[in-house]
Design a protein that fits this description.
mainly alpha; about 180 residues; single chain; about 75% helix
């Protein structure tokens, strides 16, 4: 991880080979995190871990990162947004977004999966948590959307593992309450 910090510093200074070296170093880890996230998706999904990593990398661009926590936070946010956009597109297809009118007997209608509804509910609750407690929201992004362990998340956020465990328990309870209250409305 020290090499990652040095590469981020080199990229920040504008060294031409730093971005390529950074990608080489983090690609395997980002791909394994994406693979872990995609394993929790519904069978038959069309987005593959490699595509998720590539899209996330493109979203990250060549922006400067302050440190490895900032980099992994940005990667988590990029993966989250990609998965949210994918779920929204699938739900929009259910409602006929951009489709021409045809007889329903002639086509199969795409229906959202329970995972898409769940993902959007988590996204909305997570935005609310971010206004309430940004660090806990960041912890949820790293755990849920990137698939980091408690210890890895604690390291990225620069907090102790016991603090990360407490924050995780609090955030899960807060999100559960928020999602349940939104469903009752």
């Amino acid at each position: 991880m020290a090499d990652l910090t040095l590469l981020l510093d080199a990229m920040h200074r504008g060294e031409p080979d730093a971005a390529g070296a950074l990608l080489t170093q983090v690609y395997a880890e980002l791909r394994s995190l994406a693979r872990a996230k995609m394993a929790r998706e519904q069978p038959g999904h069309t987005l593959q871990p490699t595509a998720l990593v590539h899209e996330a990398w493109l979203c990250l661009g060549h922006q400067p990162f302050e440190n490895r926590a900032h980099f992994f936070s940005a990667a988590a946010e990029a993966m989250r947004r990609i998965l949210i956009d994918r779920a929204r597109r699938k739900l929009a297809a259910k409602h006929g977004a951009g489709a021409e009118h045809v007889d329903a007997h002639d086509i199969e209608i795409a229906a959202p999966t329970a995972k898409d509804d769940e993902l959007l509910a988590i996204h909305e609750a997570l935005d609310a948590l971010a206004t309430h407690d940004p660090r806990k929201a960041e912890l949820v992004k790293l755990r849920y959307f990137v698939g980091l362990t408690i210890d890895e998340t604690a390291e990225v956020l620069g907090i102790s593992a016991p603090t990360a465990k407490r924050d995780w328990a609090y955030a899960r309870a807060w999100l559960f309450r928020e999602i349940n209250s939104a469903r009752q409305e």
